[in-house]
Amino acid sequence: MQNGPLADQIVQAFDTMSEQLRAAARYVLNQPREVALLSMREQARQAGVQPATMTRLAKHLGLAGYEDIRQLHADAMRGDVTGFAGRVGAQAKSQKLKGDQALAADMLGGIAAQVGQLSQPQSLEMLVEAARRLGAARRIYCLGLRSSHSPAWHLHYILSLAGKHSIMLDAVGGIGADALGSASGEDVMVAVSVLPYTRQTIEIADYAGEAGVPLIAITDSLVAPLAQLAACTLVVPTESPSFLHTMSPAFVVAEVLGALVAGQAGDAAGAALAAVDHQSAALNTHLKTRTKRP
Questions:
Q1: 40: domain range?
Q2: Which end of the chain is more exposed for a tag (fewer CB within 10 A), N or C?
Q3: How many CA atoms lie within 13 A of 164 on its CB side?
């Protein structure tokens, strides 16, 4: 949900608001998903205002109370989840109006801005903390289903190259979670899931947590289901003018985590990568010369 259902109304009324109301209004504008999911008291804390200010904002907008604002956002989020079909229709209309190049430019510009957000201090702090946990783990379980599978597998591949004992819970043959049978607090799980959240991912992460396995969540909100289970949460933006949410920032996070873990491992990672190079050479894995067609 890129814009909340009250966005236009709030913008129109913004100049008539006090500074406290404006702070509350900015929160509602900037965090529409959190408005639907968090309590009013928690939202007020994050906005830096008193809970009563949230109620006054609702009344300033002509509503009975703040619960009306929360309900409107919850309804909008449910409607947003239902529909790839609805979103592709909106994309097609915009694409027809503005052209293919405009859509491509919007998507690429959006992705560039989203990747840039990952270099903010709070995001960097979480990346370093996640890498520290990965480096210290006995085993790493990587989990991601549907659109989240690719970044999870990419992280697994990088960690494996660097010599870490990484296990991909990819459910081939329906036995993905079976590998958790001997998991413990010495291990760590990395799970990727964004809206619309895949039920099985949450259930497997919850099961691992019951076994004492700490969770690193790569997800789209601090109040997402995975974030509620996690010891460390890496928030990746997913908004896109396309009908499908973007996973590009999640791929970037996977690559950064893999690089950090390899660098922290030092000589051990170097030895593992040397073994990979030796095996690749022995098996003639990589194309060295390209034969030109006659």
A1: 7-81
A2: C
A3: 34
- In whole angstroms, what is the distance from residue 243 CA to residue 85 CA? 8
Instruction: Tell which residue, 109, 102, 147, has the closest CA to residue 245.
Output: 147
More confident residue, 80 or 212: 212
In this structure, the dihedral spanned by the alpha carbons of residues 55, 59, 61 and 67, taken in order and rounded to 10 degrees, is 50
For residue 191, give the nearest of 229, 223, 135 by alpha carbon. 229
C-alpha dist (Å) from residue 245 to 37, 110, 180, 238: 20, 11, 30, 5
Which among 81, 106, 128 is the end of a domain?
81
C-beta separation of 141 from 190 below 8 A: yes
Cα separation, 266 vs 263, in Å, equals 5
pLDDT at 1: 55
In a domain, residue 219? The reply is yes
CA 159, CA 15: separation in Å to the nearest integer? 52
Neighbours of 284 (CB within 10 A): 8
Helices in 140-197 by DSSP H: which ranges? 149-161
The pairing of beta strand 140-144 with beta strand 232-235: unpaired
122/50 same-domain check:
no
173: helix, strand or coil: helix
**Domain count along the chain:** 2
Q: Are residues 43 and 169 in the same domain?
A: no
Which has the higher per-residue pLDDT, 159 or 197?
159
Q: What dihedral angle (degrees, nearest 10) is formed by the CA atoms of 123, 226, 86, 251?
A: 50
Count CB-CB contacts under 10 A for residue 81: 12
Q: Residue 83 has what pLDDT?
A: 62
220 with 156, same domain: the answer is yes
pLDDT at 86: 67
Examine the domain organization and report whether 66 and 135 are in the same domain.
Answer: no
Q: Is residue 290 part of a domain?
A: no
Residue 215 has phi, psi (to 5 degrees) of: -110, 130
